[in-house]
Amino acid sequence: MRTLYILYKKELKHFLTTPFGWVVLSFIMLLQGFSLTSVLEQYEKAPIQVNMLYSCLSTPIFWFYFIFIFPLITMKQFAEEERSGTLESLMTAPVTTWQVVFSKYLSSYTFYAILWIPVFLHVKVFTWVTGSPAPVSTPEMLGSFGILLLIGSFFIAVGIFASALTSSQIIAAIITFGLLVFLIFMGLIPSIAGDSFQGAPLFHYISVHEHLSYFSRGLIDLRPIVFYLSMSVLTLLFTHHLVDYRRWKH
């Protein structure tokens, strides 16, 4: 555990002490602000029936930066070390493949979670500035944050896997982006084709949009929890085997 913690601390430090991490954080905060502004403008014109937080998580701006978060965070993890030659040194060190993979995953996931803190601060600031009641209840806030963490657990794992496939950060980012767009689109198929075809329940089961909508209302469903956690573990297993193969190949 101590070795894992040291590796995790080193990886997380890269996010928090380099310009790259702060540029990503600033970029996401800026777009989150635009998303909140667009929602407030809609509220001013006409009341919206869903809570403000879900409205912020369903704008086109949200989906734009949400999809790009994962390639940005994960593209360097293995690809950059492979390109620079430091991965080979790491692989010959007295550490296990699991420790290497999981430290990179956990540090990326921690940074991803940090990116969402400003969204919830925006809600608090809105309440403080306007003196109005909170536009979102505590269960709705916890549900929204919970589902974002669950989705992120799987999508970060996908990005780590893509980074382990290549020595090019750009290619890793493109692979991650393509896989995530495909996964999100799969959940939209029932909305496009209707619910009459035989496989509709499966696509509902993996729909990111439906999961966000359900959890942001403060409701809990065990199926998405099982889906995202199991897919995260499975993807990390694939990454472990891929990195392990490269390790013994060298």
TrEMBL record:
<feature type="transmembrane region" description="Helical">
    <location>
        <begin position="109"/>
        <end position="129"/>
    </location>
</feature>
<dbReference type="GO" id="GO:0005886">
    <property type="term" value="C:plasma membrane"/>
</dbReference>
<keyword id="KW-0812">Transmembrane</keyword>
<feature type="transmembrane region" description="Helical">
    <location>
        <begin position="20"/>
        <end position="40"/>
    </location>
</feature>
<keyword id="KW-0472">Membrane</keyword>
<feature type="transmembrane region" description="Helical">
    <location>
        <begin position="225"/>
        <end position="243"/>
    </location>
</feature>
<keyword id="KW-1133">Transmembrane helix</keyword>
<dbReference type="GO" id="GO:0140359">
    <property type="term" value="F:ABC-type transporter activity"/>
</dbReference>
<protein>
    <recommendedName>
        <fullName>ABC transporter permease</fullName>
    </recommendedName>
</protein>
<feature type="transmembrane region" description="Helical">
    <location>
        <begin position="52"/>
        <end position="73"/>
    </location>
</feature>
<feature type="transmembrane region" description="Helical">
    <location>
        <begin position="141"/>
        <end position="163"/>
    </location>
</feature>
<feature type="transmembrane region" description="Helical">
    <location>
        <begin position="170"/>
        <end position="193"/>
    </location>
</feature>
<dbReference type="Pfam" id="PF12679">
    <property type="entry name" value="ABC2_membrane_2"/>
</dbReference>
